[in-house]
């Protein structure tokens, strides 16, 4: 695999993990405790990372909601 291919693969995985965490947060209210990260810089990046996951999650929910392939149960 090329280097770029690897980068894309890792990025997609990171987005999926973040989206999964967002889904858990929305469904159970359980969110990753950002206070456990002591380093300010790392905490900021983690917050951004989790926010991105929530955006992807919201976008997916909106797309599924307006798709005729999905129904509400
Ligand atoms: C956080 O970690 C980064 C990378 O290890 C370091 O450059 C930075 O100075 C640290 N920031 C704080 C506030 O400790």
From TrEMBL:
One of its GO terms (molecular function) is lipid binding. GO terms for cellular component: mitochondrial intermembrane space. It comes from the Eukaryota. InterPro entries: Mitofissin. Residues 1-22 form the signal peptide. GO terms for biological process: mitochondrial fission; mitophagy. Keywords: Signal. Transmembrane segments: none annotated. This is DUF1748-domain-containing protein. It comes from Naumovozyma castellii. The lineage of its organism: Eukaryota, Fungi, Dikarya, Ascomycota, Saccharomycotina.
